[in-house]
Each structure stands twice: as structure tokens, then as C-alpha cells.
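Researcher: I'm preparing a figure for a lab meeting and need a structural model of a single chain. I don't have an experimental structure, so a prediction will have to do for now. The sequence is pasted below. Please return the structure as C-alpha cells so I can convert it later.
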Amino acid sequence: QVQLVESGGGWVQAGGSLRLSCAASGNRFGIKSMGWYRQAPGKQRELVASITNVGITNYADSVKGRFTISRDNAKNTVYLQMNSLKPEDTAVYYCKVYYGSSWDEYWGQGTQVTVSS
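Model: Understood. Here is the structure written out cell by cell.
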């Protein structure tokens, strides 16, 4: 069982920055890919960015060049640095982790990000 604790959400004006963090419990050698998803009101949850255990990253086109995902394997923590935020980035952001040889999925509780124009 893996528990995820997210932090760093909040309110910011357009053009501002926020940094999200997600700390995972469990054996760090069991953690595979880590990622961030978001869900805006009335929309489906979508991938924002992901990072493998060897640092290979993937980003949604809408955030490329503005967001950066990183991870600290020693701390079992994944980060999302969000710069040049836009009102359309407003959503609940969720951390997701794949764990173990069976690649079980675990989700965080979500953290609200609100960007005002």
C-alpha cells in the first residue's frame, strides 16, 4: 500500500508560478513512474506530466515550456514546477504513482490550483 501526500496548490494571478509536491510512502525501489494529472470542472481528468524512475519525462502539449516535472528518488517525492500560469490551468491537480512489479496505481487526494486573470 502506498499513500500519497500532495501540497503546494493555491491561488495565483495569471503569469505567476506555483510548485506542487507529492510525497509517497513505501519502498522507494518499488516506485515506478510518477505523474501529475488535472481535472477542471466539467472536464475529464487529463495527464499533465509524467516522469519515469530513470528521469524520462512526458508533457501535455498545453504545458510544454511552462511546466517542469522532477523527482527526488531518495525522498520518494515528485514535483511540478508551474510557471507562466494561465486561467485555463485552473483545476484540481492529482499525483499518480505506479508501484511494484505489478505496476499498481495509486492516486493522491488532489490539490486545487486556481489562476485568476
